[in-house]
Amino acid sequence: MNSTATGNILEEKIFDLFETEIDADRFWAKKSSCKLFRKKGYYSKDRGREIVFDISVKMYLPGASSYSSVILVECTNYAHAVPVDDAEEFFAKVQQVGAANAKAVIASNAAFQSGAREFAKSKGMGLLRYFDETNFKWELYCSPSAGMRTTILDTAESVERGLCSP
């Protein structure tokens, strides 16, 4: 199976996870305030064209026709740990399209290298380690999502193990 097909499989699973969490009102915004997208483009002035993100969630204030914030998600379906370079590149893309009103999240089936985790922490990015639809671990900094449902105990040791262990 080629890398695009492999990536699409994880994207579908992560999209389903977000959809389930939003529909059950376990997301950090009410489902009535959220619109979920897959492969949606957002305009970058730096590039003069859109950057397409794997998954995005636009969040709206009640009665608003324009979104007030957006969550942009990069899915990585690797056989190795997610490197810091991937986190840096994704963060740069998010800054080009959303800056202050965007939350960057990397979702991965693999562990995160310690450098990727430290970079994410320093930038307030979210990390999601996905094992399956009932077993996943969120770690999001500077975000109301820090209390979002998870299936692993929230001790520092379990966070480290869930995000960084193969």
Sketch the major β-sheet. Answer: 6 strands, mixed
Order of neighbouring strands in the sheet with most strands:
1-2-3-4-5-6
Uncertain ranges: 142-153
Overall shape: it is globular
Percent helix range: 25-40%
* N- and C-termini, Cα separation: 22 Å
Helix and strand string, N-terminal first? HEEEHEHEEH
Helix- and strand-based class? alpha/beta
SS summary, helix count: 4
Description:
The chain is of the alpha/beta class and 166 residues long. The protein has four helices and six strands, in the order αβββαβαββα. It has a six-stranded mixed sheet, sandwiched between helices. Strand 3, helix 2 and strand 4 form a beta-alpha-beta unit. Helix 2 runs parallel beside helix 3. About 7% of the residues have low confidence.
